Amino acid sequence: MSVVTFLRWTTRTSSKPVAVQMLQKRALSGTEAITALRPFYFAVHPDFFGQHPREREVNENSLKRLNGYLENLQKPGFRTLKPTKLTFYVRETTERKDEILSSGFRSVSFTLNTKDVLSTVQDVLRSCSLSMEHMQGLESSAGPDGRPPQAGGAFYRPIRWDKTYYAFTGYRDPEQELEQAKRVEPTLSLWLRNNEAEAAEKQKSSVPRREELKRLKTELCSKLGLTDVRWQRSWGVAHRCCQLQSLSRLSQQNPESLHNLRGHILVFTDQSGMNASGHVMLGTMDVHHQWAKLFGRLPSYRALLQQTEWLKERISLLLGGIQVIHIERRGPLLTLEEHYSSLNAFHKRLLPRRPALHPRSLQDLAMTLESGRSSTVLHELGHFIVPTACETHQLPTVLQSQAQEARRRVKQHEKLEMEEQELVRCCKVELSLSRLQKEASVSSPQMMACCRHLLEERPVQLQGLRLCVSHFYSVQQDGDLCIPWDWKG
Fold first, then answer.
1. pLDDT tens across 87-112, in order?
2. Which of 59, 133, 227, 237 has an alpha carbon within 20 to 30 A of 323's alpha carbon?
3. CA–CA gap between residue 435 and residue 468 (Å, rounded)
4. Any idea where the DUF4460 domain is (predicted)?
């Protein structure tokens, strides 16, 4: 957006802004929705939460879900969407002339159950207590024929405005701030000198909470017959203890509702249900009766899980024995219902053609299904990513032509994993670390480079501490130290 365009938008003398007049004439497009959500993006953009990794991750995941919700509303012939629960950390800001002064943040949770783009935008702004003056006068975003709008601009988290926009408004440019942060990024030794004492104190004070967490987890796994208890996000130890205590209270108040949990893996996350891997998900924002209702539905979920496994076997038989897998990624977990729907749709497309592949020609390879892609691609880790709505008659040729390269990448990845594990072990032992791990966004090559650098420099301040390799410097609430993988010596 140029300065001239921005001035026209903001200084028009008519009773309503040009943007509002334009939007009233037709349905809201993707680009216009982004413009209308501008105050919201400035309040929750993950780049402003660099020193708060947990809040940054929550906002990033919620933005992906919100953008996906908006994209689905714009698809031709879309059906009613499932209610989507979102949580954001909203920056508290105070306007003074042309600047915005940061003064902390607050947590906001709400559920989207809207039918069009405009009402979704209004709901988001209203839920976050943000200004809606620029939305006044807008009517339903349905078109003249009553149908939802056609797909507009794509929703993508990084909103890159023209540099003149920031120069004119006085708003901070996230990209420029990140570049400045990198230029003045401290060396590891300097940062440790300033933060090692704080981390050590926090780690020491968290020991009782860690022991309590371990006790609660062991007790509940034994009592409920759970295989494991996991957390999708990096909540603090105190937060995790509260979640387990809440489950323990439910087991005492309503013990009959929990017998269906036996043999399952339990995952605390943002929504309740069962994920594509067959793990029971407990939404941390849900109350006890919602958890109890989920436990009562687990037999039905297990039946659906069996149907899902059957579909995987049928697809594998039709495609030369290739294994159909699901890989959990960062962000919202894929629900079992969504996974079954994708498998079923793909199987129906595949079945009439019955590809001519040798039954065991691809049995040592793997594939995942993914909606929203236009073509089959080979992932760097060696598995194929196949679009649910791909051209099935071309699929056998694609798989066979890249099978050799896929096997090479699988072996390369296995080798890298072994090297990474050995480097992590050496680092932990030789630097006397209490713990060494990495964030999911850090790749194996990045982790290996970081470990080699640590072994070369051997910073003594790390002895006895818990270290997490990330992309930012930070001290977690329980004393874990986060350092960027490409730290400077």
1. 888 876 544 333 344 446 788 888 88
2. 227
3. 8
4. 24-130
